[in-house]
Amino acid sequence: MTTTGGHHDDLPPAAGVLRAVPAEVRSRRSMLALAAVESGRLLRHPAVLAATALSVWLLWRWGKGTVPVLHYADIATQFPLAPLAAAALLATNLAVLRPHRDGAVDLYGATRLSLARRTLAHLLSVLPLAALGGVLVAADLAWLAGMPGRVGSPNLAEAATGPALILLGGWLGVLLGRLWRSVAVAPLVVVALAVGSLTMTDLYAGGHDQRSWVWLGTLLRPVTVDPPPAALLGRPAAWHLAYLLGAAVVVGALAVWRSQARARAPRRAQAATAAVLVAALAATTVTAVIQTQPTSAALAARWEAAATDPAAHQVCQRRGPAVYCVFPGFEPQIALWEPTVRAVVAGVPPEVAARTLPVTVAHRVGWARLFEDDAGVATDQGQADRDDRPVAPVGTAWGRDGRALATSQARLASNVAARLVGPPDQVQEPATEQPKPTAGSAAEQPPPNAGCNARAVVALWLAARASPHAAAGIRQHVTDARFGSFAFANDVDFDDTWWGVREGRFALALLERPGDQVTQTLWGNWDLLMSPATTLERLGEILGVQPPPGPAPTPDIGGPVC
Amino acid sequence: MTAPAPTVRARDLTTTFGRTRALDGVSFELVAGVTGLLGPNGAGKTTLLRVLATVSAPDAGSVLALGLDPRHSDQRLDLRGRLGYMPQEPGFHARFTAFEFVDYVAILKELHQRRARHQEVRRVLELVGLGAVRGKQIKALSGGMRRRVALAQALLGDPDLLVLDEPTAGLDPEQRLRFRDLVSRLGEGRTVLLSTHQTEDVVALAQHVMVLHLGRLRFAGTPIELAELAQGHVWQSQERDPGALAAWRTGTGQHRNIGSPPAGAELLEPTLEDGYLLLLGGDQVGEAAA
To answer: End-to-end alpha-carbon separation of chain B, Å?
Structure first.
């Protein structure tokens, strides 16, 4: 458009206004310009700023207690973006309702840009926020990838799920604004979605099958503490992503269709939107069905094999005093374990080490929940049937700092020490309030591990001396034990040792004494101390130390287990 | 000398809200220049302006504005591209700055090229005297400044038809003078229709005037013609004349009466306001005069 010729001679001329551009092009460009303005406002919205800060904090903290396994860490990026998705829903809803809230409907109604195009602009405005979510996820994963000992590589579909949630949230906010003109609706929907999603994830974490109806939800957290190898994950991540994106397109198309209907848009445009809506609905339905299919027989077989015969699926390396067996891809973790193993081995007499070594350290993970219901694998029996030599079990999750690192080191160090002090003997696993039992009762068959009497004290002392973290982990578990024994793993493996609490207290008491003096005494009485029959009282006599009292009898399990 | 060609033709416009006829068969023509639309509250002014601004469609009747019929969507869009509309309540987004608000409306008006659009936004803000405060949030602006922001957005794209609903409401005398100056310049060569309660605005600005009352067009002509309606119906007296439709004491201490003068009354030269009040007559006079 040019200034209307001739009139308003004393007024400044209008800037190059735009009648030369075809109407369709002009309208589309205006829509993009509006999207740019709205996206800028969306990114600066207080709710989005607050949610971004919260998401960054959650990304930084959520699931970060262990050395990263990237094909598992990518899943942990999804929940932290939920606040951003909620904020996107609220902020886009407010933006869509702005003319209604401010009474500008008449003003907007006299302008050229159609309601449907304005709706499209609001939909497009969410894309930069979703991209911001992607940047946060990428930065998080890049940070994790730079950590020593990190394992695996992220799955693009898992990593993109969080940003897809933001997109879905934002587009849902647009749709709600086009359906209802009340600003009260969006917060109610956010609350309903939050309650629904958390309920679903709780059901999921409670042991339901990995591929069940819960995948129709949005937020799905990992089911086990120990990350399985990527091949055993079995998460339909790509289908779930497609499902979320399909749902987002359905929501967006509904919003546009509603706008077209209200503004009496040309039938051709309405038909095109309806076609997109139907296609997206079909795609969403298909992906919803696919992602909720039962676990495949092949995957169930792989789970069973990994649980019942893990050695057959691991790669082993001899390094110094130990053989390390890991699931393929987890080799970088060996370097994290080595210092602990070497420190424990250094605590035994050289001739004993020569006789006992190499000790085998191997991945053992508690995936019991993966096998329940659908897979139907008899894991207890499978583990009991293992005929390989006892190993020092270690999880695929290795603590990075704090309590997680203390527990990881305590578990590894104590299990290595257990292998060094002799064959299994008379510990009894507590009967209640513990993870899944790994063997029958002590009365019926020999208990599996060596967690009692003098040699257990020696083993725990060796473990505690391995590192300050290991000592801290032992101290925590002794302190926190509710029964007469304890183990260090959340999902206890058949080869994990159950330790008597009294033995643990004794070992911690020994830590207070000069290490060289204790070492000298222990080495001088090694064979006696390694006898399963040597009691704590005898050990106390040898060391000149009064053994600590045992834990008080617990009515429901009938007292200490050693 | 031939009469100027009409830029807007309205025929039998009728709009009903429930049982209320907001517009009842209104027909008129507008030509280039400023036309004042007078009428008391509830007369249907805003409804008429919304129809002209294509915000709403009449239940019956037709409009042809700038040669475009808004019943056809293509022509309606074209018309929107050539009109500027300042609603009575523009609905400001308080957290927007003046620039952001006008820029936002510019986008809705499909001024899509960023640089040219920003230049245009700056131009209209300068035009209404808000160049210095364009970065201020609207919530921080005075009522008068907000009215000017509303006017600025209406001026975007140099429209051929300006529809202004109560543009001087809430302005102080100085602001009103500035506004009159601006509108008088805007009215040179384009069609401006402004609704107002203020007859002084019409006197100062309008070459044409329409009076709407109870949804019906009661008068269309020039301000002089409206004033002439009261010729012989305005007189001066020491006391309020009980037979007058309206009367008030002037600054001279005399009373100015409108209605049917008694014999021998001292007649006065009527004003536009006198004509307007006489036209409304009866119970409506007091309200309109207020």
So the answer is: 39
